[in-house]
């Protein structure tokens, strides 16, 4: 496993050798970051269910200025910390060894890019999208990138919409953002 592009291009990453963690294939990673476009403006990133940190580290290599990583599994968390140390990114990253539900519930920061790559289990993604929406973790101009099994049904909660969708092998990539109705109501409240 490696970083595909950016400042840390070709740098090797340690993988999580566990049946509980699924590595994101390079083809999926490349498609995801190509979908973001050539000059994405997402300086603050959250990598939820980070595993080895491959997706958040790719974002840091390409465009992000800072990234928070959340991972509960002890083995994966050690690999995540090792990857961050190898790239010398401790000053622009924060790691949280905790349950993703608890992180969302207790954390009040907003993020420009949220990477949501939970275990491929029907319904879990919908629940996390609802919790992210309710907690306002996503910045107004931000985007959530989800990875799920291509057969999973994803239902956006109120005020979210699917902006882009693509299947790569068995993986479905979705880009989710605030819907237009949410933006117009927010602006009218501020006036």
Give a written overview of the molecule.
With 191 residues, this protein is α/β, with parallel strands linked by helices. It has a single domain, classed as 3-Layer(aba) Sandwich (Rossmann fold), CATH 3.40.50.150. 33% of the residues lie in helices and 26% in strands. A seven-stranded mixed sheet has the order 3-2-1-4-5-7-6, sandwiched between helices. The chain starts with 25 loop residues before the first helix and ends with a helix. 36% of the residues are buried.
The topology string of helices and strands comes to HEHEHEHEHEEEH
Helix content: 25-40%
CATH architecture: 3-Layer(aba) Sandwich
What gross morphology would you assign? globular
Ends apart, CA distance between termini = 49 Å
Oligomer: single chain
The biggest sheet, with number of strands, parallel, antiparallel or mixed sense and barrel status, is: 7 strands, mixed
Instruction: Name the CATH class.
Output: Alpha Beta
**CATH homologous superfamily assignment:** Vaccinia Virus protein VP39
* Domains, number: 1
Task: Quote the CATH topology.
Answer: Rossmann fold
Tally of DSSP β-strands: 7
Low-confidence stretches: none
